[in-house]
Amino acid sequence: RVVRYQHSAFVWWDTSSTAGATEATPLLGRLVDHSDLVNLWQQVWASSQINFLCDHCVGTVPLVPGTLYLRTAACAAQQVLQAEWINLISASFQSFMFLDSVVGKFDVRVTYNTESQQVEVKLYDASLQQWNTHFSIFATKGTDLEKTLDPDAARSRCSGMEVSGAEVYQSIGNAYVGEFQSVAGAWFGDDECLVKMQFHQQVTEGIPMHLRAVAMLDAAGHPTVLQDPASCGRPFFFSELAECQLGSIGFAQNGHFWALSSDVGSQHFNSKLQCVSHMGGGQAGYLQPGMLEAARVKRCMYQTVWQKCDINTTIALATVPALASQGQT
Fold first, then answer.
1. 51, 102, 109, 277: which has the fewest C-beta neighbours closer than 10 Å?
2. Is there a contact between 108 and 121 (Cβ–Cβ < 8 Å)?
3. How many CB atoms lie within 10 A of CB 49?
4. Mean pLDDT, the chain, whole residue set
5. Three-class SS of residue 122?
């Protein structure tokens, strides 16, 4: 006899990791709420994504790169607006997201409000049992920049100084590794900087394309720090951004990328020399060496509270070895 059972998953069974690929969007996760006003995505970051992002350091402390927020915001707007190019303005980096201190898991929410055209990225703080906003920006539909790069012409204009990737990373205050240490060379002119980025691995070796785009956008700005007299080899972070244009094309090519920066902003090009993004009004913030590391030590220490208590003096001292060895009662 065949008996058919009607069954459902246990409430503690998390099916997010087994959901079909069509149910989740890179950088966003699964769409869990949708209305005319708000779209909400939620996901728990996979360990592979966390390990990749840990290669981005301010000083020696692993932090979520600001370019991840930009790519996430663009991805959310692209989903809602059905556009390949997105304009991002008025970025607000509200707090660092440390990659070495989250208890349990990285539970992340992304919302896009169609009325205000604002994207917000939030992380759930298990210790406080609340969602904290780490980033917000306004996102609207953009247009293709339709620009290409002539590397030879750009190098001829940037003939004042040439530095290798190794020299860049020996001179700046952040200990980047992996895909975030991808600058191969930089050329400086009077008011321009040309940067070539060479990635270390092929995408077929497990580097997600949406994360490689994050690393490329971050690495493009590393050499420009050398032009800032305020840097002095100090740790730095992405503190401000006035506007940005991001496209969904061109990141599928392996190999190398280019960046061309000037006083009006920076443009980024794929290995086919197509423009894939533009940033304007970016600013770096600087920290004293060891400052963030010291803050991490303080943050990770236990909080101690001393309280008075009555001790039963009738207990034999010999029954309390720890106190007896110290001569205390």
1. 51
2. yes
3. 19
4. 83
5. strand
